[in-house]
Amino acid sequence: MSSHKKESRSDDLCSPLLSPVMVDGQPPLEMLSVDQALTKYCGEFGFWQLKHFVLTCTAWALEAIHTMVMVFADREPGWTCEPGSKCVWNSNESVCGHQPGSWRWDSSEVWSTVAEWGLVCGQKYKVGLVQALFFCGCMIGNTRPPYIFK
Predict the structure, then answer these.
(1) Which of 14, 66, 103, 138 has its CA 20 to 30 A from that of 130?
(2) What is the mean pLDDT of the segment spanning 63-72?
(3) How many domains would you assign to the chain?
(4) Average pLDDT in the 60-89 region?
(5) How far apart are CA 43 and CA 46, in angstroms?
């Protein structure tokens, strides 16, 4: 019978290897796993945890959509030389080396903020600046204390 107890105790993965020791007449501290601590102090996964999870995921999904918009809307479209101009098209060359009006954006390309606002050459830094400001705003919004911006 005692050998059966030893076998069942050795098969039990949750039992401690050493027996707890009393210190100054106090019982030893309870060792909890992460799951046990969450269940003991926060309770089981319920309605409020689900609500918090859905709202958090929604916020992250909206931020991801804005990031994807920036990736696709801020690309630089292709360009070609205007007919009758002295412009010579080279696939490795930028539009910066040509006179304004001697080139045009490809009409086959889809809309882009770079093409609409002329963010090429000396204005190219503005594309990265807008992206950096967006992510700074996300960082401030995610790390601010709750009493700010009420």
Answers:
(1) 103
(2) 84
(3) 2
(4) 82
(5) 8
